[in-house]
Amino acid sequence: MVIEDTAEIHIRKSNLVRFEARRAQDSTPAITIRDLLKATLRHRPDRIIVGEIRGGEAFDFLQALNVGHSGTLSTIHANSAYHALARFVTCVLQSTIGLPYKAIKSNIGDSINLLLHLERKAGRRQVSELVEVGATMSRPTGMSSPPCIPGVSKRCRRKLERNPARLKTVVTERES
User: Fold this and answer.
1) Which residues contact 65 (CB under 8 A, 6 or more apart)?
2) Is the pLDDT score of 125 beyond 60?
3) How far apart are CA 74 and CA 51, in angstroms?
4) C-alpha to C-alpha distance for 60 and 62, rounded to whole angstroms
């Protein structure tokens, strides 16, 4: 399932379902990304792709990850992987769900496996960071060699080791 504000993601699959948000018009109510994420969970999809996380839909996205929809992916705009995680926390807080900050960070640590940060250099996008998000989240520290990342093949890990991209581990504090 693909959920977007504006249809921009082009995937050619026979069993693909697209949901597109819309603004309120005359007598037609708005349909938000949050509404579409909730509706998507009722379909029990194998994969969920959200075009971009910008606000309170981050909480619903996090809920989808926490209830077994591990094949889920989205984008969030930020200057680094660390800032993307901080922005994601801020977006969850925008949902007005009332969860404590530490609980949000713990949920993110439990739900998000990898974060890939791309940056534009010389007119091209390239990988600048690949972050493994783990059990305790704090400001990332550089690592000399990549840890074993579940789901990343040995061939991919070898490329990462040769590539100047930085691989970091980020962890979240858990409330005791």
Assistant:
1) 72, 111, 112
2) yes
3) 6
4) 5
For the chain, where are the alpha helices, taking DSSP H only? 33-42, 57-66, 81-93, 101-111, 154-162
pLDDT at 165 over 60: no
Q: Residue 153: how many CB atoms within 10 A of its CB?
A: 9
Q: State which H helix or E strand residue 125 sits in.
A: strand 124-133
**Separation CA 105–CA 92 (nearest Å):** 10
Q: Are strands 124-133 and 166-170 parallel, antiparallel or unpaired?
A: parallel
Whether the Cβ atoms of residue 43 and residue 68 lie closer than 8 Å to each other: no
Q: pLDDT for 59-98, tens place per residue?
A: 999 888 888 777 788 999 999 888 898 899 999 999 988 8
pLDDT above 70 covers what percent of the chain? 75
Query: Roughly how many angstroms between the first and final C-alpha of the chain, as a whole number?
Result: 36
Contact status, residue 53 vs residue 91, Cβ threshold 8 Å: yes
Task: Give the DSSP per-residue string, 144-165.
Answer: SSPPP-TT--HHHHHHHHHSS-
